[in-house]
From TrEMBL:
GO cellular component: Golgi membrane
Compartments it resides in: Membrane
Residues covered by the Ribitol-5-phosphate transferase FKTN N-terminal domain: 1-276
Stretches that traverse the bilayer: 9-28
UniProt keyword Transmembrane present: yes
Principal subcellular localization: membrane
The protein's name: Fukutin
Highest classification ranks of the organism: Eukaryota, Metazoa, Chordata, Craniata, Vertebrata
Key words, A-Z: Membrane, Transmembrane, Transmembrane helix
Species, as recorded: Hippocampus comes
InterPro entries: FKTN/MNN4/W02B3.4-1 (IPR009644), FKTN_N (IPR045587)
Membrane-related topology note: Single-pass membrane protein
Amino acid sequence: MPRVNRTTLLWLLVASSLIFLLFQLRYYRNYASETGPHILRRTPGHMTASDIQWQSMKTFLRLSRRFQLPLFLADPTLLGLLTQDALLERERSLREAHCSFLCSGRAVASFGLLANAWTYNAAFRLAAEEKGFELLEVRGEDPRLASLDLLSGEDIPLHLLLRLHGYIIQVVFLYERSGNYLWHGPLRLKTNADHGFAPFAQMDFGRHAGAYDRPQLILTVVDGLDIAIPLNISGFLAQHRRARFLECRYRDARRFLRLYPDDSSPEALDFRNKAKSLLQVAAKTLARLHVPFWISSGTCLGWFRQCSFITYSRDVDIGIFISDYRPDIIAAFLDAGLSLKHKFGKVEDSLELSFVMDGVKLDIFFFYEDGDLIWNGGTQAKSGRKFKYIFPRFSLCWAELAEVRVGVPCETLDYVMANYGAAWDVPQRTWDWKSSPSNVQENGMWPLAQWEELIQVF
Ligand SMILES: *[C@@H]1O[C@H](CO)[C@@H](O)[C@H](O)[C@H]1NC(C)=O
């Protein structure tokens, strides 16, 4: 073998070894900076989504402490991760600098703000902008002022979005309403607003207005940061799942009342006061039993059509799903000061309870689910005849009637139309519950031998 070729080969070997060594070094540097101990300082370009989230959250929480924002973590995903077990685990460990709960990888995190205890101000906005946040404030009408007399309320802040490095913190303003609950408005962007500011479709708050009980809060440490959270996380999450709130249709109600002015006789006023007290007692009693209810029949029509009770209806009607029936409902109403007037049917079929307080009747109809339909029963005491009232399926929303928070079918128009037909918006003073409703059906007779048990009048 010629000598020249040997030298060339040697140099080639040395060169390739050097290149290989350089590769190893470079690879080690990269590897160490990604996953190994943090020997090398990270530049912002190397920040992971989780770092961004944590940094934004830290900056935001520091800012909110400085301005004493009455905040609590309301984000369903993050709260879902914070089970009680996980919390205990965290409390046992040190306040270590590690983001395991708050950095969910989602682009949005939401906080509730108790708006009656804090006024949004320019100083906060300025300080947030100084920290690098971009802000989007969503305002809307104050529904607490939007009554029948004052058509449009004052503008109030409903949502505040803070964006840092593409990560969004959503602050949901929760206002006290007269029915003793917290309310937040829908997130509606003005046409000239930046519709690309945030991934609005992914947000957990703002598609609709919402209603919540005032949550009991506790201060805790999550991922080394002090954060207030609802004490009963699962209770809060359960409320979140059915928080949708429907504002009364004040504009339509005004139009209706111009055509058909409200009865302002002393008897009508007296009925309204008594009906309000009765509804308050019913709502409180059923809340204590954790039994959801909604306003039904004439009471629902009154809310939907004129934002008040229909004075000539002379009673208050509510609905309860039979799956929520509890045997102690009767005792609870008796304890609350009502007297039982009648009990028709049985849990398996057409159950109906009637109470009376101060001369005003409270009818409780139990509703049965049957495929695409939901129905409740009626019984004529003197003849034993049975009736059936059929409704399309509906889900439950919150609403406010006479300063009481009540349930209503979310698909209210369908519900009202099923019951009262297309002419629901025309007052109908003569009404026969056995023949007038659009959705009534004859449903046979109770067997004579069971009357004593199934038709009880007190
Ligand atoms: C939390 O809320 C749920 C749902 O409302 C309820 O069933 C549960 O009893 C509550 N837990 C506590 C400790 O209050």
